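Suppose a classmate hands you a notebook page containing two proteins, each written out with its sequence and a corresponding row of structure tokens. How would you begin to make sense of it? This section walks through that situation. The first entry is reproduced here exactly as it would appear on such a page.
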Amino acid sequence: MQKKIISVLLLISIALNVGLIYQFFYKGEKVIAEKDGRSEIRMAKENREFVMAEMRGFLESVQKINEGIAKNDPEIIAKVGQQSGTCKVDAVPQGLVKSLPFEFKQMGFQTHELFDVMAKMAKKKYDRQLTQEKLNQLLNNCVACHKTYKITTK
């Protein structure tokens, strides 16, 4: 009897955890389609400021990586790639992830990962052409995001 109760409680706990993970990490808040075809993501002012600052940081990193490619200097690329990589994910303000639609999160994580990939490539086996291709992938993410979303405050 006690094993049955523990099994039922375990199943309930797993179901609740799956539901919470879905709610907070995947679902995000609904977005409202704008007249210009983009979807609006509404968030707290502080979170919007964080996202905008991160995007400006991405743009600065892209410029520096491009400079590293032009100068054929993998050290620049490695340094900048690490600064904008997945290590930045730890600095995300509380509540921000919940407010983002799943597709936006996917693009954001993929962008951070591409910075990591370029940093690793620059450190281990630098290939100018391949780095340029990864940078182009990253820029495609940026363009897709800006074409798809508009971030406003609540």
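The notebook's second entry, a different protein, reads as follows.
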Amino acid sequence: MNNVLEVKQVSKVYDGRHGVHQLDFTMERGEIVGFLGPNGAGKTTTMRMITGYLQPTTGSIAVDGQSVHDQGRTVRSKIGYLPETPPLYPDMTVQSYLKFVANLRDVPAREIKLRVSEMVSRLGLQAREKQLVRGLSKGYKQRLGLAGAIIHKPDLLVLDEPTSGLDPNQIIEIRDLIRELGENHTVLLSTHILPEVSTLCNRMLIINQGQLVLDGSPQHFGSSMGDQFKVFIEVKATEQQLHNLLAPWEKVRSEVIEPSDGKSSTGQQETVRMLLTGESPDDFREELFYLLSGAGLPILEMRKENLSLEQIFLKLTTTETDAESSDVNDMNEESAVSPAEEESK
């Protein structure tokens, strides 16, 4: 079995309303999966159910084939969880916090010193081992939270908005760390920053109003969800030549992006850049090629234009309902759980 995580028909009901409704997906070993959705869509609820902080109303969740509900302590040892606000202890030093978490996570006593040293090195916390947590910048608090989440070498790493509130340099550093972690861990990454999905993830899940509305590769859905087929072309021609050739072609509409002025000062014929939009989702590139080549107009570039992740996201998550607002309120009422509280369950 290659599935690290199995979420089967999971629902969570708050006061008669679904915060999450019949979620069904799996994650294979070694995947980095982006988890997207508007505020209140149910992302945090889902992650808290996966990590055992909340119980589903219906359905089941398993990690490495073991039930989160029935074998909670065993399963939590296989999971690393970084909430949006890491539950750190401000009066501890970096080193003492990591030792504390290692003990909670049942890291063998003989390995704790080595494991703490490894986390300090891997997360770039050198020279801060003796520093109090309260004195760390937000970027270093995120690093420390991430170190605590992986110190026990979990199979599944769940990250909730790990780059929220960081400056651009810190964002780049944390993204590099997540990419590195993806080599040895299965990662579920919740984020509102859509470029992170393209940069880090080989798969994305989009949730809206508590339901899964998309599951697959970011690259695949960019090309498959468009209602119309769009092609960018750069042609060695004048704008008038292209207009005369394409105007009678009822299959497409054309929009000039960068017109030509005819001849350049060197006498070389200039180019026109144009976006062509089909009246249907059908691929018209082959027909376009023969049309232009038959007219003796050289094609310098032709590429299919895909929907951006932003366009896909807006297409699938257009409105927020009262149910979503209820989910937000419920999440606000549940405080972050500290490592000590987690282990006391």
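A careful reader of the second entry would note: The chain has two domains: 3-218+313-343, 227-304.
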